[in-house]
Amino acid sequence: MKVAASDRRLTVRHNFRIPIRVRFWKSAISEERGESENLSEKGILFATDASIAVGAVLDIFLKMPEMITGEPTTEWSCLGHVVRVAPSDSPQGKLSVGVQFDCYQVSRAIPA
Hints:
Order of helices and strands: EEEEHEE
CATH architecture: Beta Barrel
Radius of gyration: 14 Å
Strand content: over 45%
Number of helices: 1
Strand order of the largest sheet: 1-2-3-6-5-4
CATH topology: Thrombin, subunit H
């Protein structure tokens, strides 16, 4: 039996548009600023004009919303790998890039 990709997700995706910073892992290339299209505790989708291949490892920096974690908003530094690249209709970029988080570090709580 074939299972739709959306049925395999382990966590709920939220259509949050939050600022993010992205850079290739261990790269001297400067980071790119952007915005998420959707977000979960396990991954993120964002639009970009950068050439990013499936399998690429990225550092992503963001303020994870309380609605996702159940904890106060915190700064996260996430390391993940690209699992999907597809054409995008977003004004933020020509490609939609899906990243699965492999690990993350919570930097600090954001004061209210």
